[in-house]
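Sample 3 of the quickstart, ligand S-adenosylmethionine:
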Amino acid sequence: MSSGEAESPVFDTSVAHIARVYDYWLGGKDDYPVDRVVGERVMQAYPDNVYSVRANRAFLDREVRYLVGEVGIRQFLDVGTGIPTANNTHEVAQSVAAECRVVYVDNDPIVLAHARALLTSDPAGATDYIEADLRETGQTLARAAQSLDFSEPVAVMLLGILHMIPDHDDPYAIAAGLMDAVPAGSFLAISHPASDINAAEGAEAARGYNAQAAEPATFRSRAEVAALFEGLDLVEPGVVRAPEWRPRSEIEAKSPSNLWGGVARKP
Ligand SMILES: C[S@@+](CC[C@H](N)C(=O)[O-])C[C@H]1O[C@@H](n2cnc3c(N)ncnc32)[C@H](O)[C@@H]1O
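Result:
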């Protein structure tokens, strides 16, 4: 881990942070009281949230398997990695093709503190971890180039992160900037909380989150999420509720979720 292992990272436990709240929703153990209070507040507003975050992890699993198994992608840039949990990107990718290379990026020190679990690569492939902010695209790409070959296709993964980028920080330009750096045949995968699925519950959940969190969340409509793929060719079935993206069963497709999900190819 060339970004340096955290000897004693400092965690701000006075306000909730998305990585730790998400960990709480997933049943993890790396969260603090303030994260649990906010996590509960969101679940009171939107009781199906636990299903929704699990559906997001299942979307990650299907999307990575599709890209490795059906498309032949071997390189991933996973920005907004989250605290390691079950089926991290490299584990899914390398279970299909051991030579896959995965670079993880997150800006929360708690993710850095647990990054060792992300660096358990199959020897045939590689993993790396970069502590960086998604908004610092140039810096992230320069570091990622130490592990990834940007003359070959790369799958850029922005799962459950772009809602943490407010409109004034231009998430559209950030997604476009990352895709400008990768060659034709590369892919962009996005999942994003929706403002137009379970709209009333979602709005109340966002209010509850934003009242006590370090950084605000912005839920977006299907049209806004589709615009994040501008200039790319959406893979079937397009931007859909995350559980409906190439589901493995009818039960999976019907999972409650207020997330839009999609995958697109750079022409
Ligand atoms: C909800 S979690 C999603 C984790 C994982 N991608 C998934 O979908 O299961 C969002 C992650 O994005 C990270 N994050 C939020 N804003 C970020 C930023 N501006 N730059 C880098 N990482 C960020 C958080 O620290 C957190 O770990």
